[in-house]
Please model this.
Amino acid sequence: MSPAGAAFQESLARASADPRFLDRFYARFMGASPAIGEIFAGRDMDRLKRKLRASLHVMTLAAEGAPGADLYVDHLAGVHHRLAIAPDLYALWLDALVATAAE
Model:
């Protein structure tokens, strides 16, 4: 694993150790834009938090070139495309993730 990948994994492990991490992330992310709140309205947030935790780990594997991880990332891209997620929301997602991890 690259030093950057290892640093990300260590940071993710530290942040994930706090049971409030994903709740804080989603609160921050959904508060960043009314459009985000609309996307998540009526969704099973416990399920989404489990998926996000897994996705963060798989994204690290994909960045490292792990076999098969790119297939999952492609699947996620397709899901987000079908949901018609506006491109500007991705920057808000990243900002919320970084801010929550820093917190």
